[in-house]
Amino acid sequence: MTNTVHAPFIEFLAQQIIKASSKAEQIAISRRCPLKDLPALRTRVKALLNPANNKPVRSTRLPACYVLTKKRLNVLTRTLQNGNT
Question: What is the pTM of this model?
Answer without folding.
Answer: 0.56
